[in-house]
Amino acid sequence: MTAAIAVGILVAAGVFLILRPSLIRVAFGFILLSHAVNLLLMAAGGLGRRDAPIVGPNGPAAPADPLPQAFVLTAIVISFGTTVYLLGLARAHRRGDRHDDAGSRS
């Protein structure tokens, strides 16, 4: 229940920031949405089964499921790349690099 509430709050704050006009706020909104997706993936994998990956207190018969952890790791890498790209766009916009490469510059 706590994970669902946290995902809902993160999604609401992320959508609110994405709808703001500033590009930095849009980048922060995407960061919050990516955190919400990571938490959602971990919750979907079962939060109660986060024991040791190989041998836990129940013995080798009940290891933790590594698939949600792999999904979250992939999502972290993708969200990091998206964040870097959005912050690069914000920096280029702030510097004033608004030239169209396909158009003429005369």
Secondary-structure blueprint of this entry?
Blueprint (H helix, E strand, L loop, with lengths): L1 H17 L4 H22 L22 H29 L11
Helix pairs in contact: 1-2, 2-3
The helix content, as a percent range, equals: 55-70%
Number of E-type strands:
0
Query: Would you tell me the structural class of the helices and strands?
Result: mainly alpha
User: Major sheet: size, sense and barrel closure?
Assistant: none
**Element string (H = helix, E = strand):** HHH
Strand content: under 5%
Please give the count of helices.
3
Shape: elongated
- How far apart are the first and last residues' alpha carbons, in Å? 61 Å
- Unreliably modeled segments: none
Q: Write down the overall mean pLDDT.
A: 80
- Rg: 20 Å
Count of discrete domains: 1
What does this structure look like?
This protein is mostly helical. The protein has helices at residues 2-18, 23-44, 67-95. The model has no long low-confidence stretch (mean pLDDT 80).
Characterize this entry briefly.
With 106 residues, this protein is mainly α. Helices cover 64% and strands 0% of the residues. The longest helix has 29 residues, at 67-95.
Salient structural properties:
106 residues; mainly alpha; 3 helices; 64% helix; 0% strand; elongated
